[in-house]
Amino acid sequence: MTTIRDRCPAGRLGPFQHPVRALALGMCSLFLLCVLVPIKFNSRDGYALDLPPLFRTSSSTVTENHNGRHTLERPSREKALQYPGLAAALKKVAINNEVLVVMSDRHYAHNGTVLDLCIQSINRVGVKNALVVALDNKTRDFAEGRGMAAFMMKLQAPESQQPGGARTMIGALKFRIMAACLDLGYSVLFSDADVLVLQDPFSFLVRDSDVECMTDGYDVRTAYGFHTSLRHDEMGYGSDAVLLNLVVLNAGFIYVRATEASRDLMSLVVRRVETENTWDQTILSESVFLPSTPTYKSPAVTSRMMDYELFLNSLTLFRELRHTGQHYTDFLPAVVHVNAHTDKAERMEAIVDRYVKGNLTALDHLPLGSGR
């Protein structure tokens, strides 16, 4: 029988007999087993890498052991000196240094408005760490009269947002409020006033990223991303340029952890919102997702898209979810943001009728869209 030694020249060892080579080959084999073998084909999503335990990190480790710019920060006496009044208000209501913040002004400071319905929903669910940031005394007094903690901040709407009207101008102020909360060391779950809370949203946060945000998408593809391509037939082999498409973030419900990266993000967004005539959600989405380039430095935040049905926008509810039969009957969202409609109070009342009072036909009379 011929052996490896028989086929090797005299005085030389075969590739598996030399101790150093044997060790190297063994390490390569181990690497191949650990990394290449777990690559498996998923019939729906294509090739996906199922990482072996060596490369996995538990969610609890991710949450607690961020390094550098993604380390979770906390309030301090020194930080509180920046905004003493706001710091005191946040400290009073915060749980684990987290606060649900709702911003509003005097236009909604009366019965039956979106702010009234929003506050009622928060109190109904029992979210204690909630604060209304009022832009005037009337709104502060109204919120406190509804049993909600409130703090007034006098903020001037940026002139750059004037072409979008009063709603856009007021909405742009949310980023300045979030930036202040982050500077004080508090993680903020920011909510527009046209949001209904149906379950405690803090129970559904993952907390593994700097930013967790609702989407304006209405299904899996538009919420989480999908591919299209640009054709250049004259290129032959290289005729397809693949595009990754993503519907913008919904800035009306967003959780931002108190990290250095998050503060960098908010500084960039505030600066752009106050100097550019661009939709604030476009600015936020670009600031979160676009990479650094030779002419642009990204804040490089980590991000997570919220479950698009659990954190529900009104386009998804009225276009998709209410037509899903048993799923619509059984499913309870955590929040519903009535962002895609102008008849907000009417739809919010119908949503309360559907999800709080259990009337399965409460939304049937409402059309898909509403007037501009």
Uncertain spans: 1-17, 27-66
Subunit organisation of the chains: single chain
* Number of helices, where a helix is a run of at least 4 consecutive DSSP H or I residues: 15
In spatial order, strands of the major sheet run: 5-4-3-6-11-8-12
What pattern of helices and strands is seen along the backbone?
HHEEHHHEHEHEHHEEEHEEEHHEEHHEH
Question: What class would the helix/strand composition place it in?
Answer: alpha/beta
Mean pLDDT: 85
User: What is the distance, rounded to the nearest whole angstrom, between the alpha carbons of the first and last residues?
Assistant: 88 Å
Short overview:
Helices cover 35% and strands 17% of the residues.
Please explain how this structure is put together.
With 372 residues, the chain is of the alpha/beta class. It has 15 helices and 14 strands. It has helices at 4-7, 19-36, 59-64, 77-80, 84-93, 114-125, 137-145, 166-171, 174-183, 220-224, 260-273, 280-289, 314-319, 326-330, 344-355, and strands at residues 39-42, 46-49, 98-104, 130-134, 150-152, 187-191, 195-197, 211-215, 226-231, 240-245, 249-256, 303-305, 311-313, 335-337. A hairpin with a 3-residue loop joins strand 1 (39-42) and strand 2. Helix 9 packs antiparallel against helix 11 and helix 11 packs antiparallel against helix 12 (280-289). The longest helix is centred in the N-terminal third of the chain and has 18 residues, at 19-36. The termini are far apart.
